[in-house]
Amino acid sequence: MMKFACALALAPALLLSAPAWAEPVATTDPAAIAHAREIVETIMPPDRRSTMVADMMRTLTDQMRPTMLEQSGDPALRRIIDSHLAKVLDRLTPVTERYMPRLIDAMAEAYTHEFSPAELDEVARFARTPAGRRYLSRSTAIMADPAVAAANRTYFVEAQEASLSSQTELQSAIAGYLLKHPDASRKIMQGAKAPAAQP
Question: pLDDT at residue 133 above 70?
Answer without folding.
Answer: yes
